[in-house]
Amino acid sequence: MPSFLLAASHSRAASAGRIRAECLAFHASAAARAREGDLRQQGLKRYYLKDYKRTLRPPASRGEGSEGRRARELVFSGIIEDLGTVKTLKRLDQGLRVTIRCHLPIAQVGIGDSIAVNGACLTVVAKGAATIAMDISAETLRRTTLGTLRVGERVNLERSLTMASLLNGHLVSGHIDGVGRVVSIVSEGDSRLFTFEVAPAQARYLVEKGSVALDGVSLTVFDLRGRRFSCALIPHTLAVTTLGQKSASDRVNVESDLIAKYVERLAASAAQRTAGRKPPMAQAWLASSAGVQP
């Protein structure tokens, strides 16, 4: 082979070798970056989800009751986790202690955790092998149906949300606004059409196709007529909540939509702030042109 062809062959071989080496180095670098990204993502997951019970469910401080902790608690979703059964009721000086048998993962429930019972946020003060005990304050007894609980009665249970939870219902605070009643129940195949009636103070927050929590269950409002509205309950909801055991004239705990209450409060505050302001220059000029003092 002529020398110039031999030199060209060696040059091409060297170039090919350099290209292969560069490709291998590029792939190795990309793999290293991918591993680094995976490790960083896993580290963030561990950081945010590590020991979430301690960071998101802090134990109640000494002398702090259910209402004292609620401002710090996360919200609920209105998706019932378990149907508990009232085991014992003990009258307190200014309230009631209820012990409930349940199928919640007791090992994951800590003293001081918040659990919604028929929609009312309560604090766990004691627990057993398959039981949880909670104190109910006089204010909660006045505002809810919990004062009429009986031994053996079923109750809706839901633990508060964490950063690892799915929001399948809507934002529920566990602060009951009042008590409503079942007006009628009509069967529609395997489902049932409930009509409820609430006080005007709660009816003001109802909107067509909006959300409401009844006994802690997230439901969709429709056929809104003043203080009355309807909700359609599918067989699953009837089976896994206490609503499947309700009859006409039964009472239910009502929590209005949390976002609606905040919007009303913010709108009222904005209206108060602007009420005392002077009218804009253009508005003042138009008013003066019409002979009206602004």
A few lines on this structure:
The protein is α+β, with helices and mostly antiparallel strands and 294 residues long. It has helices at 3-49, 52-56, 66-70, 138-143, 200-203, 235-240, 258-275, 281-289, and strands spanning 82-92, 95-101, 114-117, 120-127, 131-137, 154-159, 178-188, 191-197, 211-214, 217-220, 222-225, 228-233, 251-255.
What helical percentage do the residues reach?
Answer: 25-40%
How many independent structural domains?
Answer: 3
CATH topology name of the largest domain, in short, is Elongation Factor Tu (Ef-tu), domain 3
Give the number of helices.
8
Named at the architecture level, the CATH assignment of the largest domain is: Beta Barrel
Distance between the termini: 104 Å
Shape, per Cα inertia axes: extended
N-to-C order of helices and strands: HHHEEEEEHEEEHEEEEHEHH
Across the major sheet, the strand order is: 10-9-13-7-8-12-11
Indicate the mean pLDDT: 80
Q: What is Rg? A: 31 Å
Q: Which CATH class of the largest domain is shown?
A: Mainly Beta
* Helix/sheet category: alpha+beta
The major sheet is characterized as:
7 strands, antiparallel
Low-confidence blocks of residues = 47-73
Strand content: 25-35%
Strand count: 13
